[in-house]
Amino acid sequence: MTQSPATPLPPPKERRRLREAASLTRAQLASRVGVTSETVRGWETGRSTPRGRKGEKYAKLLGSLGDEGAEGADSLGGEAEMTPPQDGAADSDDPEPAPGAVLSRRSARARRKTAAPDRKRPAAKDRGHGPVTVPDRSRTPVPHGHRVILTERPRTTPPRRPDDAIAALTPDQAFDALYAFCAPALVRQTYLLTGRRELARESVERAFQIAWQRWPEVARDRDPAGWVRAMAYECALSPWHRFRPRHRHPEPPPPDAFDRMLMDSLLELPPPYRRTLVLYDGVGLGLPETAAETEASTRAAVNRLAHAREAVAERLPELADPETLHWRLVELASVERLRAAKPSVVRKGGERRARFWTRAAIAFTIALIGTTALTVRTAPTRYEPPVPEGETVQGVPPRMAPGPLSESERELRAKLRKEEQKGPDRLRPQPW
Question: Could you tell me which PROSITE patterns the record lists for this protein (predicted)?
C-alpha cells in the first residue's frame, strides 16, 4: 500500500502554473525530482498521481516554487515587463508554455547553476561520421540560453495582465504579435515538410492571411499558434502544387551532403508520416497533440511515427536515436536562411486578396444576372417548330430549253392558227 505525500499537492493546473512561473521546463523539473518529463506531463495533466518518495519530493519542490514566486512578486511589486519573442527562440523539451516575462538576473544566474546540462548538442562536424550517442532528451535539462529553432513557444509564462490591458489590444496588434511569435519557426517547419523555401514562405503567409480573415474565430481559439500551424501544414502539403510550373523545377538542395540525404529521406515519406515526424520529433508535441493535429487516433500516430523513424534510420543509421534525429532536424531547418515577411505586409496582402475575390464574386454575379435578363427578354413566348430541310425528288426529267421548229411543225402551227375560229367541232363556253 502506497502512502500519499505528507506535503499537500496542489491541483494539476496549479502544478503546471507553479512550474511555468518559476521558468522551469518539464525536463528541468524532472531532473530535480529524478523522473522523466513524460511522468511530469502526466502529473500536470492529472492522468497520474505522484506517489512514494518521488511524490513527496515533487510536492516539496512545488511548495518551494510557490514560496519563491510569492517572494518574487513582493519584490517586484506585482509587475512584470513583457518582451517580444525572438525569432524561433524556444525550448524543444517544453513546447507547450506560452510567451513569458522577463525575470531578474539573479534568478537567471541561480537557474544556470542548478540546471547544469549533462549532454551537449552533437557537433556539426560529426555529421555523417558514424552514430552519435546521446542520452534520452526527456531526462536531460536544456542548456541555459540554448535556442531551438523548430518550436515557436518560449519557456516562460506571461504574467496575469488586467482585463483592461487585454481589452486595449487592437486586433491588428494582436495579429502582429501572433505573427512575430510564430512565423519564423513555422517557416522552418514547413521547409522540412516540403523541401522548398519559397513554398514554405507562401504557405505560412497564406495561413496567416486565412487567420486574419477569420480572426474572431482564431482569437477565441485555445491555441491560436496550433490553429495557424495546422493551416500552414495543410497549405504546404496541398496536392495542387504539383500542377504549378514553378513546382516542376527542383530547388537547390542543402550544401551539406548529410543534410541532403536527410532531406531526401523526409521527402520520400508519405505526407501524413512526414507531418507526424516533424510534429513529434521536430516541434516536440506529445502524441495526443500530434494525433489531434494530424486528425488521426493516437494509435495511428504511434504507427506513423514508428514507420517514419524506421524509414529514416534505414537510410541513415546514425539517426536511429530519436534525440539525435531531433537535433539533426533542428540543424537542417536552421541551416537555411528563411525569412518571413513583416506582419503588416501579410495582413495587407490578405486584405487585398479578400477585396479582389469579393469584387470578382460581385462582378460574376452581375454578369450572371445580366445574362439571365437578356435571355428572358429575347426568348420566344410560344413554340415554333423548326422548318424541315428540303428533300431531293427522284425520277423527274431535267428541264430542257425549246429548240428550233422543223418544217412540218411550222406548217402545223400555221394551220392551227388559221382554223382557230372556224370549224363546227370548236367548243366555246356559253353563258348561263
Answer: HTH_CROC1
pLDDT digits (tens, 9 = 90+) for 185-195: 898 899 988 98
- The string of pLDDT tens digits covering residues 392-422 is 878 777 776 677 888 888 888 888 787 766 5
Residue 55 phi, psi dihedral angles, 5° rounding = -65, -40
Alpha carbons 100 and 153: distance in angstroms, whole number: 9
Q: Are the beta carbons of 319 and 328 closer than 8 angstroms?
A: yes
Query: DSSP string of 279-329?
Result: IIIII---HHHHHHHTTS-HHHHHHHHHHHHHHHHHH-GGG-SHHHHHHHH
CA distance 404 to 68: 137
Q: How far apart are the first and last CA of the chain?
A: 144
SS3 breakdown of the chain: % helix, strand, coil, rounded to 5? Answer: 60, 0, 40
Q: How many CB atoms lie within 10 A of CB 270?
A: 12
The whole-number pLDDT of residue 426 equals 59
| Residues 213/355, Cβ–Cβ less than 8 Å | no
Average pLDDT of 377-393? Answer: 84
Domains of the chain by start residue, with CATH: 12-67 (1.10.260), 171-335 (1.20.140.160)
Indicate the SS3 state at residue 405.
coil
Distances from the Cα of 264 to the Cαs of 181, 254, 267, 284, 312, in angstroms?
A: 29, 10, 5, 22, 10
Q: What is the pLDDT of residues 287-302, one digit of tens each?
A: 888 998 888 999 999 9
90 φ/ψ angles, rounded to the nearest 5 degrees: -165, 180
- Identify the top-confidence range among 60-69, 71-80, 166-175, 221-230: 221-230
Cell of 172: 491588428
> What's the burial of 262, exposed, middle or buried (CB within 10 Å: 0-12/13-18/19+)?
buried
Residue with cell 500530434: 290
- Nearest in space to 152 (alpha carbons), one of 339, 269, 282, 312: 282
The answer to whether residues 15 and 43 touch, using CB atoms and an 8 Å cutoff, is yes
The pLDDT of residue 380? 82
